[in-house]
Amino acid sequence: MSKTFASVSQVNEAVIACERCPRLRQYCAGIAHDKRRAFRDDAYWGKPLPGFGDPNAQVLIVGLAPAAHGGNRTGRMFTGDRSGDFLYAALHRAGWANQPTSIDRADGLTLNDVYITAAGRCAPPDNKPTPAELANCRPYLIEELRLLKNVRAIVALGQIAFDSALAALPEVGVAIFKPRPAFGHNQAYRLQHYTLIASYHPSQRNTSTKLLTPPMFDAVFERARLAL
Q1: Which of these, 9, 136, 143, 191, has the minimum number of CB atoms within 10 Å of its CB?
Q2: pTM (two decimals)
Q3: What is the DSSP track for the chain?
Q4: 169-202 residue pLDDT tens
C-alpha cells in the first residue's frame, strides 16, 4: 500500500475494507459465522479493526491485534474482552477515558488525548500474526503516525507492538540509532520528538499471573504523561 491519506478517518475506511491477508480474512469471517456460544445472539464485526480515540491525541497506544471474540466481535479495539477491561480501567484511572469499561461500540466510551491502534488489524489464529501479515498492516500504522500530528508518547503493549512501532517510525523520518531499543516493561526511549514506552500486554495470561498488575500499568501511563 503506497497510498497516503488526508485523515485518520480515511485510514480507518481503508483498514475496514482491507483484504491483504487471505488467511486472516478467512479466519475472522469463520469466527464471525460460528460465534462463541456466549455471544450467539451478537452480530459479529468480522472485519479488520480501525483505530479508535481522540484524533488530537498526544498518546498513541499500539496493541497486538484484535481478539477473536473481543474486537473481532465488537468492532472496536480492546472492546469486549479481558485485555480491554484491564486497559480501559487503567485509562480511566489516568483520566484519559470517561468510563472504566468497554463493552460495545455503543457504550458511550470516549477517550481524551489517547488514540488506540494495533500492529495487526485482524484477529490471528492463536494470537500469532505472521511477519508478512504484520508487514501488510504496517502502512496503516505509518499513516496514523503521519496524521496524528500531536502524538508525543507511544505506548507499545507487548513485544510485537514494540517491534512494529520501531519498524514504522523510520518511515515518518525518525532515526533509530544503535543500540536498538530493547523491549522491557516500562522502559522508555527518546526518539526525536517521540517517547516510545514498552509495556507488558494486558492479556489475561499476564494479568492473572501478576506479570502485569494495575500499579505496574499505572506507572506506564504516568511515564507517558511525564513524556508530554
Answers
A1: 9
A2: 0.96
A3: -----SSHHHHHHHHHT--S-HHHHHHHHHHHHH--GGGTTS----SPPPPEE-TT-SEEEEES---TTTHHHHSSTT-SSHHHHHHHHHHHHTTSBSSS---STTS---BSSEEEEES-SSPPGGG---HHHHHHHHHHHHHHHHH-TT--EEEEESHHHHHHHHHHGGGGT---PSSPP---TT-EEEETTEEEEEE----HHHHHTTSS-HHHHHHHHHHHHHH-
A4: 999 999 998 999 999 999 999 999 999 999 999 9
